[in-house]
Every structure is written in structure tokens, then in C-alpha cells.
Amino acid sequence: MYHAGIFTKDPVYRKEALQSCPEDRPLIVQVLSLCHAKLKVPITCKIRVFHTIEKTVEYAKMLERAGCQLLTVHGRNIEQKGRLTGIANWEFIKAVKQVLCCYYYY
């Protein structure tokens, strides 16, 4: 519980603590890698887009490398919720789809 308290209050701690190496940043990579290695169920993730396509694509690739097997991309950024919902940006979703390994089951 000590780590959880600091983790929620200190952005530096969130960025630097509980990491095994620079390649494992952010912490979600470590969690995904561990789940993928230890569990026998598919690992799924849902993300919102970042403000640039490049950052969104890089984050999606990082999740895939960490073990994410099904990724849902919400076409809006973090500020677009509630009254500020706006229209989803399909270009971001398309860019992620084009770079990840895709397997379709119909």
C-alpha cells in the first residue's frame, strides 16, 4: 500500500520507480509482460489516442511488444470526454491498424 500511495501522488515516482530497465518504461510494459508470461488467457488493452499519430503508434507498438494480443483504440484523446467528446479521429486508428500485426477472424 505504501507504493500505491506514493504512486498516485508523485509523478516522478510513477515515471522512475518500480522499473527494471529503461526499455520497460512505462510501468504498464512490466505489468503486461508479466501477465503475458504467466497467464493462459489473451491479454487485451484499450487506449485513447495521444495528440500525435506518431506517439499513438509508438505506444501501440510498445503494448504489442509487451504482450498485448488484442488492442482497442479509442479514437479520442484524454481531454475528449464528457461534454467535450467531439468526433473520433479515424486517421489515428487507421495508422495503428497499419503498423501492428493483424490477424482477422471472421
Describe the structure.
- With 106 residues, the protein is mostly helical.
- The chain has one domain (23-99).
- The protein has 5 helices and 2 strands; from the N terminus they run H-H-H-E-H-E-H.
- The chain has a two-stranded parallel sheet.
- Helix 3 (27-38) packs parallel to helix 4 and helix 4 (53-66) crosses helix 5 (90-99).
- The radius of gyration is 15 Å and the shape is globular.
- The termini are far apart.
- The mean pLDDT is 81.
SSE string:
HHHEHEH
What is the CA-based Rg, rounded?
Answer: 15 Å
For the biggest sheet, the summary is:
2 strands, parallel
Total strands: the figure is 2
Task: Please give the order of strands in the largest beta sheet.
Answer: 1-2
Mean pLDDT: 81
Count of all domains = 1
How far apart are the first and last residues' alpha carbons, in Å?
A: 44 Å
The percent of residues in helical segments reads 40-55%
Note the overall shape: globular
Percent strand equals 5-15%
Number of helices: 5
Spans where pLDDT lies below 50 across 5 or more residues: none
- Quickly give the structural class: mainly alpha
